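Note to self: keep these together.
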Amino acid sequence: MLKPEQARDKVEQLVENARRAGADGADALCIGESMDNVQVRMAALEDVSRSEGEKFGLRLFIGQRSASVASSDLSSEAMDALVARAMAMAAEAPEDQYAGLAPADLLDRGPFADLDSWDDSEPDPAALKARALVAEAAALGVAGVSNSSGCGAVVMSTSVALATSTGFSGAYRSSGHSCSASVIAGEGAGMERDYAWHSARHLSDLEDPAEIGRRAGERAAARLNPVKVAPGRLPILFDPRVAATLLGHFIAAITGASVARKSSFLMDRLGEQVFAPGIAIHDDPLRKRGLRSRAFDSEGLPVRPMALVEDGVLQTWLAESASARQLGIAPSGHAVRGVGGAPGAGPSNLYLAAGTASVGDLRARFPRCILVTELIGQGVNGVTGDYSRGAAGFLIEKGEIIGPLAEITIASNLKEMFRTLEPANDLAFRRGIDSPTLLVPEMTVASA
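Structure:
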């Protein structure tokens, strides 16, 4: 895999080639990845794989016409062909009054922040196998666990390089270490499956694989012998691993493209109370060792920590340059893209701030409530906010777990859910999108 500075040289050359071919503007992106992946099942090696390579994307403009092409061939001949193909495509493309590179006066000129995202330790396949076996053994050691769906360990590295014809050039790299376990509890028709995993930029931050496996086993065993719940309206607690999905729906509703297309249930709510007073949602691209930290956005704009919601009030849209022009605002520094196509907008390390009540306090507040630990299917309307999803979890009475629940449906509207939700105090930064346990005081519950 190319070193970051080598990848940066390549994208700079690609942009220069596009300009020489007659493009009015261009940007080029290189994403390089290498990954070693080892999977085991029932103490036997199941799969060992390695992948490595780079992909390049070129976007160029002829007036208000644009085209994007991508390739993994780094030869000079292939790069020339890539430029020629993009020029031919752009000549036939429709005009777009909002198309174009990010404003040159807003570009990040460096120096870029040190994200501490690189760890040069690279465990070999034998070490990865040993880690996966430890996780599986711990999971199978939990009473009630009867089988393994597979456990794995991964080490990977990623490099990103971007150059634009307006003068931006930058590159950064990151590493990743992860371990996962998926197991089955019970027998026959009563079997239940669950999982656990953890990822970290540095190997030293990775959770003990035995703890990961034990948590997977305990989760699976806890789901055995589900009970029934009568349909009705009940308080719902969203466990942190599913609470983050509510933040995903929130982000989809505040991206510039959704707002500009008038396809967002929050499109008229900027500056208004969307969540309860006290609720805060932050995006932090510069978090040290963060799983989604980045030195600059995908258009070369600077990134910074930002409050998206303060005291329940919606503060901003997330907008790349094209949607920002449609909305008449400045781009927010949230452009994201792959090597093909134009940028969209998305968060980095996103989190909903912790509240003051413990999970136990929230559970004990109601005579009966449900803790949701798994969500199934889609069932979310981004235009109206209507929300209906399959779910599994646990029935709680007077603060105590009565038994697991399976095959239920929970329904409401995201506008009402956001307005009334309350966070617990158990926030932990483990994913790219993090949330504490969230209480929604009332949702409609139905059993299958």
